[in-house]
Amino acid sequence: MQAAEVGGLSGGSMADPLLEAKDLAKHYGSVEALRGASFTAFEGEVVSLIGDNGAGKSTLVKCLSGVQRPDSGTLVFGGREVVLDSPVAARALGIETVFQDLAVAPDLDPAANLYLGRELRKPGVLGMLGVLDKKEMRRRAIASFEDLGVTLQSIDVPIGSLSGGQRQSVAVARSVVWASRLVFMDEPTAALGVVQRERVLDVIRRVRDQGMAVVLISHNMPEVLAVSDRVEVLRLGRRVAKFRAADTTVEELVGAMTGALSQEDA
Amino acid sequence: MTTPQRKPLLQRLAGTNTLWIALVLLLLIAVFGALRPDAVLTVFTLQTTLVETAVLLVLAVGMTFVIITSGIDLSVGSVLVFSGVTSAMTMNALSGGDATNAGWGVVAVGLLVALVSGAAWGLLNGVLIAKAKIPALIVTLGSFGAALGAGQLISNGSNVSGVPNVLSNNLGTGTTFGVPNLVILAAVITAAGALLLGTTRFGRHTYAIGSNEEAARRVGISVTRHLMTVYLLAGVLAGLAGFMATAYFRVASITGHDTDNLNAIAGVVLGGTSLFGGAGSIVGTIFGVFIPAVLRKGFVIVGVNVYWQPIAVAIVLVAAVWFDQSRRKARDQR
Ligand SMILES: Nc1ncnc2c1ncn2[C@@H]1O[C@H](COP(=O)(O)OP(=O)(O)OP(=O)(O)O)[C@@H](O)[C@H]1O
Ligand SMILES: [Mg+2]
């Protein structure tokens, strides 16, 4: 088998990764979710993070998007060492995340969820008083959803009354609308039908082509191979292998996930 | 691809509890009005009903915010008493023991003391709930007892009289163009609350936190600070309510407020605000607060034993919550 060549696949100088996490550890009580996990993402690439259930993928994403603090380890983003002590810190760096549990407010409508925490305010005095520009948010949300191929019968219903797949599509839309450098997507296609899945994969490619990094977590190996430039494998809280998607196979990925294969330098 | 269309206003309203509860209120008024048109549909009946409900409405506005965050505040009635007592005693102290003939300056200090007293209890609730993460039910059950106890300690367990006449004659029982001043104040507070909740970022975040606290946190809303502010707001409004009650009754009473909290909660929930958080409105709260009031008034006028009133309220209340619950269940089972 082939060790992965580190480096993005599009563009020129690819020496420096956009994001480099080293030796992250995180435990919940006695459960060690991450045991020295490392992870790398380059600009302009789709990198898939795969691993068995409970391997620590979601925990890694939470640590890298400021939702949880790792117990130890270092994080370098854009060439500088950073500490992500809150989701706001991650967002300030241009990092957006689709969480596995979606993290949407079910009682609010899709536009409100899209703009949650970044509400547009009316111009002038009203805006200073905190009055929302609901019309403008709604208008732009409709445009974003249309642009990203999210189909909703009605935009004025609470998101909780949408189907699981529609909710997921809204969460994906929210992440790519706001991201400027890196998007984490934790199983963004898990609940999607064939058409919507293709749309999300298209969106992922589009975001990559704009020069951002996309980190995709998925259990669907053909999907991983279809959309990724690279694949990193997590097992028992540690990175055990890195592959270039073009040079690997489903068998190899599965072998790395289950521990049948391992790379020493991963 | 189809662009999603906005449904007409009426259709959107029909899906909410607010419309139904408004219809219930109208129905009640119509029934009582038909039974005794001479007594029910009079300016006097309207005025007294409004005045008697004004103080409760102010409490319920704060309670609406609290319940939308999926919290609860059992302390409002006791904070009302505490604030009334501290306010009246301060006004007395500033006037050599009896403030009956005191001027506006003293009244202004009294108002400030009432608001600060309410704010202090609200902040205490907020810190314990949002920072220490103790359940709101427990925290405010504690302050429900403590605020009343503190009020009784300060006043030696008796009502505080000596309320300035200028206060009682103007805010308490005065009218402007036939509308009681107390009602005008309550209406202003309610309108401000409705705008805050319905049109601002603060309101939007209140809904978001009640709907999914973790999601709110992950989009960068400072949940802890927001919750503290919401309980602070409920406390300040309870303080104001204490000041209003003192003005109206011409005495800072330490009794008669032990079920204010439950009445406020009932009004809010009747008005379609969900105890699960994330949904509700001030407009609904207005309807919800007036249903028990209209029932009580109506029963008195029509000659039904008033002891039926709490039973009737209970039935409507349970029906409203059941309706909300089954609606949510249907939605979450998708
Ligand atoms: N909040 C938590 N409290 C306690 N244990 C947790 C928590 N979150 C995750 N864990 C544990 O950490 C380990 C890794 O979980 P994680 O959710 O990161 O796995 P995953 O790779 O995303 O799995 P899946 O593919 O099923 O989503 C699991 O053993 C899990 O039980
Ligand atoms: Mg996961």
Automatic annotation (TrEMBL), chain B:
InterPro entries: ABC_transp_permease. GO terms for cellular component: plasma membrane. The chain crosses the membrane at residues 20-44, 56-82, 102-124, 136-155, 175-197, 227-249, 264-291, 298-323. One of its GO terms (molecular function) is transmembrane transporter activity. Pfam families: BPD_transp_2. It is found in: Cell membrane. It is a multi-pass membrane protein. Keywords: Cell membrane, Membrane, Transmembrane, Transmembrane helix. This is ABC transporter permease.
